[in-house]
Each structure stands twice: as C-alpha cells, then as structure tokens.
C-alpha cells in the first residue's frame, strides 16, 4: 500500500493532473479511509471500496447508467421533483451524452439490447476468432520486430484491437483497411481533465456502414456472420431496426479501444520495466493469463464510470437523494485490502486476482472481456516467444529510475498515449 498521506478535501480528483498520472496514493488512501466519500466541489459521491462498488453494480433499479460517460458536472434537463426519477430520466434521455449506446441503458431497454449483443459474442464465435488473433499478431510482429524498435500503441495495439472486433463481427477483410483508417485516430479523451463533455457520438461514423450491411443481408441472406447479425431478434422475437444493430456493433469497437489497447500498453510497460518478471513469463508462458488478471486488478485500464441515483438510498453511511451523481472507481476497488492481501504488491501468482472489477459486474459486465483477454494472451505470448528481450526506449522514456511517461490525461482511463519499446529478436525466429 502507498503510505503517502493525502488530504482528499484538497484534491479535485477530476482535474488534478498529478493524481491522473499516478492514482495509486489516492486510491490507497480512499479505499483504506473513505470507501464512500462525498467530495464537496461537485457533490459527487466517490465509491472506491470493493464491497460498496458491488452494491452499486448489483442495483440498477437504484443506480442508473444514463450518465455513465458524462462528467462530475450534471445539469439535469428537468426539475428534481418526486421520489423516483426513473421515468423522467428515460423521458429526457436524449439530453445525456452517448445516450444511444448500450452502456448507458437501464432495464428493460438494456435487457433487450444486451440479449442481442450476446448473440454476436457466443463462445463458438470467440473460438472461431482465435486463429485470426494468432495470425494477425504474427503479421503485425513481422512488421515491428525486424526494426528493433517501435511505438507500440499505434504501431500494434490500436490496429490489432480494431481488427479483432472486425473479424468477430464478420467484417470482410477487404474492409479492414477502411476500419483502421476510420478508427485508429486521435480524438477527445473521455474523462479529460478540462471536464469537456462530448455530446457528439463519435461512433456515428460506423452506423452507416453497418446499416448498409444489415439491409443488404436482410434482402439477400448468405451464410456469413453479418447475415446472422442482420437476422438476430430481440428476446420477444421482434426484428430490431438496423440502427439498433449498428449501434451495438459499433460499440464493440469503442470498447476494444478503451480496454484492450490500454491493457496491452500497460502490460508491455510493466514487462519492459521488470526484466525478471519478463524472463519468468518467457520461460513459462502458461503464467500469462494470471499476469493479465493481476495487471487488470492493480492497473485497471478503465478506472471508473458514473451512475445517477433514481431514488433515495444510502451507501457507506451516506444518504443519497434522487439525482445524486456517483463516481464508481472500480480501478481503486482492486486495491482494497479487505479483499486483496498486500494489494499494492504485484503478484503474478495471486490466487484471487480474477476477482477484480476491471470488467465491471452485474448487468453491465463487459461482454467483450473474453475477447480482450484472448487478444492480450495471444499478443504477449507471441511477443515473448519471438524476442529475447523487450525494453523501454530510453530515448523516449528516459533512464530507469527517472522515466518519462506519455499517459492519458484522464480521470476515467489509465493508459499510454504512446509507448516506445526496443526489441531483441530471438535468433532464428
């Protein structure tokens, strides 16, 4: 555990650049002393405790996800009246950011769309996707390794995550370059420290593409995966509008960029910084899945997301009125000493690492978690098998003990904007 003393009343978690770059002292202090905390500047209730986080996850009838991608400042488009905001929130849904994305849906709308989504990510389809992941990892490494150095986030992780989802959804390979050009671009960061809330849905660029494919397959069905997507129905048997399917397919690309890319970057940064750990995994690649779970526990790529109380409730000894903004920091929950022994210590053999909340819990558990894990396992395994050594570029990150990192300026995300690595390729590879 970090022993740095902090005064949470003197810290603006949502704008403090030092905290955003290194949240460990803040997380450790809050989980140990204030697992539920009402900060005074915005009135946001910050949840860092593990058990307290589970209470939020498992009660969507109390905590709405409608503001999930928003910020600490919430201007409700209606007057706070009554003791239950459920109907009002849906009535004014269009005023919330990313309001057409499943991550912001509450039941029963969420239930229908989640069922549709899970029909696209079946165990059978994930298994079929594995060969593509292996081949694509080697194809990209064929480009990177001979040079002996590369920028890893844009040179590998972004492109790999996009194509992994593209193959899962059955997007023809002829369209893969178009997707990379469309999606592997720099844009506003969610949870930026200037508290800028994006009301423009960046995924709209993909809607037209998938609507066209769905309409084509409905008119002329084939045996491909896109046809299965086009003909999928809601649980009651009704056929969704093409835009509903397009939104779900598009959201998978966004999820991949937010989790897998940063999981790969954080994992490589840790391995490059810890040579004994790197050697251990290279000698025993069976440890890679455990390594990934421990990375997710101690450095979750998504630190947290917002919720909004629909009704009056209480948590951690605090009373919350309807309309209270809650910041759920599941990234901190992975460092809760009540659940994880010596939580600040990285232990690749930790028995309960997989209990982390990096992929959420409850109805909003990340449906792409198996894909993200598979992408990370195949990428790390091939990188370790094809190299003798992976190191951080001192030219870009400085010497050991005095590193310079280019991390995302965000209170919601943990990850690297750029990560420069050097490689010693295995002889005879």
From TrEMBL:
Which Gene Ontology terms describe the biological processes this protein takes part in? cholesterol catabolic process
User: InterPro entries per the record?
Assistant: Cyt_P450 (IPR001128), Cyt_P450_B (IPR002397), Cyt_P450_CS (IPR017972), Cyt_P450_sf (IPR036396)
Q: Which Pfam families match?
A: p450
Query: What GO MF terms are annotated?
Result: cholest-4-en-3-one 26-monooxygenase activity; heme binding; iron ion binding; steroid hydroxylase activity
Keywords from UniProt, A to Z, are:
Heme, Iron, Metal-binding, Monooxygenase, Oxidoreductase
Per the record, the similarity remark reads: Belongs to the cytochrome P450 family.
Full protein name = Cytochrome P450
Naturally occurring in which organism (per UniProt): Actinocorallia herbida
